[in-house]
Amino acid sequence: MTHIIGCSVASLLVLILCGTNCRAGNSAIDRSAVIEPGLGIGDIRIGDDMKTVLRKIGGSKPEGKTVKSGSMVEYWLSYAEQGITFIFDRNKILSRIAVSNPVFYVQQKGIRPKGQAAELDRLFGKGTKRNLNDNYELKEYRNQGLTFTIDKDSNRIDTITIIPNR
Amino acid sequence: MSDEIPNPVAPTPVPDTAQEILSIKEFFSVIVKIATTLVGFATLFVLLGFTIILSFINNIKLYGLTNFPQEFYKEAAMKFHADLIETYGRHVYCAIALFVLVGAVSLWSYLFKEKVLRVAYTPYGITFILFVVLLTFFATLRIDFLPTSLWKIGEFRKVFLFMVSVPMSSLILLFLGLKFKEFAKRPFRVYYFMVASFIAIFISIPISYGDYLFDMNVFPITGFDHADTTKIESLSSLKSDIGNQGKSTLFFLLGHSTDREILFDVKPSDPPAKMILVDKNLIKFIKISRDNIMSLRDIMKEKNANIPVPATGVSVEPLPREIQDLIQKEAGK
User: How far apart are CA B311 and CA B288, in angstroms?
Assistant: First the structure.
């Protein structure tokens, strides 16, 4: 009897602590890694308010910053471990989701952050290119609900951003 | 001479208070016990804070830049205790589960004491205890390997530290206390092993807390309180350094170190923060705000490839207070 209880406790501890190396939890972000262009990721949808998003994610605390440019105000909430940033407009409504963790991939297309930028033309068509700075450029597919930030040096995708379909 | 025979059974009259008064020796013994207990607790308290601060400033690469006074240690130790109690309060179901588990194990050990001891002292039992202790020790030292949330438990790292490592360390201490008499009479190997385990886990708790959980506030600098800053050369140069703040860079003050103060030049698009060390006398001229307070750990973070950076030319500021409050309220659930 003692052996059985001892082994059960040991197995339980091992299970808990072995599960620790996979950093996935059970929040709305962790449950789904599928990027739905123009819509969102998992339960989190473009157009959700900040409170709903925070509730759906639960658990960990994001790093936040206010980004201002002219009259534009945005609130960026980043979850560094999951590699995901939620961008809210001044009314605290989710307007974009930026992911830079290769665990996320675009539905049906399979492309991920850190993937080859050369693949984009084949998968999504030409798109519009815009220079961001010396290191990055932006490739936009506004009618498909996605933009891609590309590292010029490596020609790899740095960030995939989900935007509302236009 | 009286004929009356004294009654041999009659008690000798004794003053009422005689039994209650301690002898001088006993009195001093009690005083010494109280004093050593208080000094012991105070030393442990400061030592706990010292270990937390040391591992914290080491972790965020501030070690050696300036001296941190004892106030920091006390603050860190107080925060540790407050965090411990808050964690039990916030994760009340985990706390109940822990108490039930500890209660059940204690009851089981009490009811089947002979059997438990017989198994515990076998190679199998020792291996099992060693396994659990080592697992706890390594997991405590590197709680950053644990997920931030597990199932419905938010703040899982904090929960692990306070609800697994701390009780484990306390249980080992309890075991050592109960077995001390036996140890004093005849030393045995298990006792040494348990002492080593206790020290390992006990030390790893504040190290881990300082490395991954403890944090300090830094305050945004809003201006200068001296009418003519040009009269003080260093203040003048500091003013010109800070003069451009609000565009894309913000300056924050750490405060209350002993000799020099650290100002952080925070450019959220290009972490980690750069630092300016200023003379302590200079900070009496600096005006700071209590709004938009930032966490030291956040601004000292190395550049994180997992966070996209805003485009150049935009200004980046901390979140407004209402959003910080909302995050605080919702993120812990």
Answer: 28
Whether residue A10 contacts residue B132, with contact meaning beta carbons closer than 8 Å, is answered with: yes
Residue A126 sits at the chain B interface (C-beta within 8 Å): no
Closest alpha carbon to A97 in A58, A135, A59, A43: A43
Phi and psi at residue B286, to the nearest 5°: -90, 130
pLDDT along chain A (166 residues), means of 10: 48 44 45 82 89 83 83 86 86 90 81 83 87 80 90 82 85
* Digit-coded pLDDT (tens) for B263-295: 777 654 455 667 777 777 777 777 877 766 777
Dihedral over alpha carbons B28, B30, B31, B36 (to 10 degrees): 120
Cβ contact, residue pair B331, A59, below 8 Å? yes
Structure confidence by residue, pLDDT tens digits, B287-307? 877 766 777 777 776 554 455
Contacts of A82 in chain B (CB under 8 A): 306
Q: How far is it, in rounded angstroms, from Cα B128 to Cα A9?
A: 10
Helix (H) or strand (E) segment spanning residue A161: strand A156-162
In a mutational test of the A interface, the residue from B163, B301, B326, B330 whose CB has the highest number of chain A CBs within 10 Å is B330
Q: Who contacts B20 (Cβ-Cβ below 8 Å, separation ≥6)?
A: none
Q: Alpha helix (H) ranges present in chain B?
A: 24-59, 70-90, 92-111, 113-120, 123-141, 156-160, 166-178, 180-185, 189-208, 233-242, 296-299, 321-331
| Whole-angstrom distance, CA of residue B331 vs CA of residue B333 | 6
Q: Is this complex scored with an ipTM above 0.90?
A: no
Decide if B116 touches A, using CB distance below 8 A.
yes
pLDDT tens column, B106-119? 888 788 877 777 77
Q: Which domain range does residue A45 map to?
A: 2-162
Helices assigned H by DSSP within B209-286: 233-242
- Give the mean pLDDT of chain B: 77
Under DSSP, is residue B248 helix (H, G, I), strand (E, B) or coil? coil
Q: How many angstroms separate the CA of residue A68 from the nearest CA in chain B?
A: 5
Query: Is the bond preceding B272 in cis, omega lying within 30 degrees of 0?
Result: yes
Cβ separation B326–A77 shorter than 8 A? no
Q: Which residues contact B188 (CB under 8 A, 6 or more apart)?
A: B182
Mutate to test the interface with B, among A67, A86, A131, A157 (most CBs of B within 10 A): A67
Distance (Å, whole) CA B312 – CA B305:
17
CATH number for position A86: 2.60.460.10
Put simply, whether A18 touches B (Cβ < 8 Å) is no
Domain count, chain A: 1
Closest alpha carbon within chain B to A53: B330
Residue of A30, A63, A150 for testing the chain B interface, max B β-carbons within 10 Å: A63
